[in-house]
Amino acid sequence: MTVYGIDLMPDLAREMGDTDTSNLYYSSDQLFSAINDGLNDFNLQVPDQQYIIIGSGNTAYFSPEPSINDKRLITLFSAISLTRGDIQKSSRSAIIHANAAGRTDLSKIPEMLSKQLDRLQSKIDDFLRHRSRVLVEEELDEAGVELRSDYINETEGI
Q1: What pTM, to 2 d.p., does this model score?
Q2: DSSP letters along 48-110, please?
Q3: pLDDT digit string (tens) for 121-155?
């Protein structure tokens, strides 16, 4: 089944918390651009599997077809791309404004977005660790090597 770029847009919007369909924060152009940026970051950090997007607009699709886990990773990389952009925008308007009605503090937004960035990176790191472990186990299985724990090796001599 062909995986189109637009197929990742709902997952990316949910990852960014943009779920109110009556008032969406990100346009489809922003989401699609972030998916392209996320794909570039994925290709840089996961050299054993490279993808490209063929075509443009609603008919743009991934080649080869990404696995479920790789789609999730591309979505997370795309969310990082959007979050970095949000940090840049919020940094330009990080102020504390006081008036007769009270005080509005926008200075903490970049810091909170940075925490979001750390959370996303942690998710990516977990996925990449899992991915590496699975690849190593598959290679060992193909070579006929059995994985054994140290506990089993220590108790065999008894």
Answers
A1: 0.76
A2: TS--EEESSGGG-EEESPPPHHHHHHHHHHHHHHHHHHHHHHHHHT--EEEETTEEEE-TTHH
A3: 999 999 899 888 888 888 887 777 665 555 444 54
